[in-house]
# Entry
Amino acid sequence: MGFLRRILGGGEVADLPDETPVDQAELDADERARDLELARNEQERLSDLARRQMRYAAYAWQPPDQGGERRSDDEGPTEIA
# Structure
């Protein structure tokens, strides 16, 4: 904004408030608090069934991949049974 003010002549640079250095610990605490609030909202939004499905999705059984890497148009020995 200061750049535009200098170009357009809207005010002096001294009129702008001084930028104070930002405390990294304070930023981290604010971010953690926001993450906790989002997690709480997510828990309230989802039903018990949906929460259980998400929790155990990594352990769900999936059928093995069928076939292999060889395809019918690949050249190689043909096997007729």
